[in-house]
Write a structure and sequence with these properties.
- The protein is α/β, with parallel strands linked by helices.
- The chain has 11 helices and 10 strands.
- Helix 1 crosses helix 2 and helix 4 packs antiparallel against helix 5.
- The two termini are about 30 Å apart.
- About 40% of the residues are buried.
- Bound molecules: xanthosine-5'-monophosphate.
Length: about 325
């Protein structure tokens, strides 16, 4: 079925309609969803809880690929909103599946498979739920239909019958709208600014920001670099910003000796909808200070780059 975009909504009416739809679709059954902390999954969690109350179980799957303190922050934010979120530890499973993989698409496909089939499928079977609520939005649909990448969210657009392969039915209340409208709905739901104004973060997490093999040590390193980049760039008004860890060592100098170290690439995007983008114009002094901070605080980094390529041909994330 071809999905049609809705370009304008009355957020209040949209919310009422989606709550009614989720309610009638799920009936008396149980539903389940995962929350990443991003605006899409946050809105779906809120709509789902309004529609189903206790019959919706919300999980945060800690893949080990999230930003600093993200699991704790997500749980406490939702607790304040009256929604209980259960954390599932999945770091070991994810890291052992990723061991030795270097190909970007293979890494993404592995994360998708482990996330859905191994972890989510098991949760569903144990919970007795038959329905999964997902935060797929219209931009996700377009990118997957265009064959730009394997995206975790859009199983059905990939031609996968989720009921058969993953044993449950997917409900996607936001599939016809793009992120700016999702943010509008989020505000109308009276969710905090930390959620409705949060920059996008990819479902495969920091794995999308590591070239080459993904190991826990490399994730720790890129997490720290992302924390610094976010601190420096959150006030710029840029669409999205990130630190990416390169694969090969580059040569630096330490105490007068040649010293092989890590290279970090910074991207900071000006964009409306993530379909295209240009590098955000950043002040040279700010760039230099950010680089100094990364070199000083992220062990082993000897080089910091700022990427000046447009999307296309580049993508927003590195993987
Ligand atoms: P790319 O890297 O494809 O990213 O130019 C476009 C936008 O989508 C985000 N992104 C993802 N979001 N699951 C998501 O939910 C994913 O697998 C994924 N990959 C990229 C990216 O951060 C940007 O906002």
């Amino acid at each position: 079925m071809k999905i049609k975009e809705i370009k304008d909504i009355n957020p209040g009416q949209f919310i009422d309609q989606k709550i009614r739809e989720i309610h009638s679709f799920v009936g008396d059954a149980l539903a389940i969803n995962t929350l990443s902390g991003g605006v899409d999954s946050a809105v779906v969690t809120m709509l789902g809880h309004r529609a189903l109350g206790e019959r919706l179980k919300t999980f945060f799957i800690d893949t080990g690929l999230m930003r600093k303190d993200e699991p704790q922050q997500v749980v406490s934010t939702f607790k304040k909103l009256g929604i209980q979120v259960q954390v599932v530890q999945a770091q070991d499973q994810i890291f052992s599946a990723l061991k030795g993989l270097r190909d970007p698409e293979e890494k993404r496909a592995t994360i998708t498979h482990i996330f859905y089939k191994e972890i989510f499928g098991k949760l569903i079977r144990e919970s007795g739920a038959k329905f999964l609520l997902q935060g797929t939005n219209y931009t996700d649909v377009e990118e997957i239909v265009a064959g730009l990448k394997h995206q975790q969210k859009v199983l059905e657009q990939l031609g996968i019958d989720s009921e058969e392969v993953y044993e449950y039915k997917v409900i996607e209340p936001l599939i016809q709208i793009r992120k700016p409208l999702v943010r509008k709905v989020c505000r109308t739901l009276a969710m905090p600014a930390a959620i409705h104004s949060r920059p996008s973060f990819p479902a495969p997490g920091l794995a999308a920001r590591i070239l080459g093999e993904i190991t826990p040590d490399k994730v720790d390193l890129v997490r720290e670099a992302n924390r610094i980049v976010e601190t420096f760039l959150s006030a710029t008004g840029a669409f999205q910003y990130m630190a990416i860890l390169h694969n090969d060592w580059v040569t630096g100098v330490k105490k007068g000796k040649r010293y092989p170290g890590w290279q970090i690439e910074i991207r900071c995007w000006d964009s409306k909808d993530a379909l295209s983008g240009v590098p955000f114009k950043l002040n040279q002094t700010l760039l230099l200070e950010m680089s100094d901070k990364i070199i000083a605080e992220v062990p082993g980094v000897v080089s910091v780059l700022y990427n000046i390529t447009r999307k296309p041909p580049l993508t927003i994330e590195a993987v």
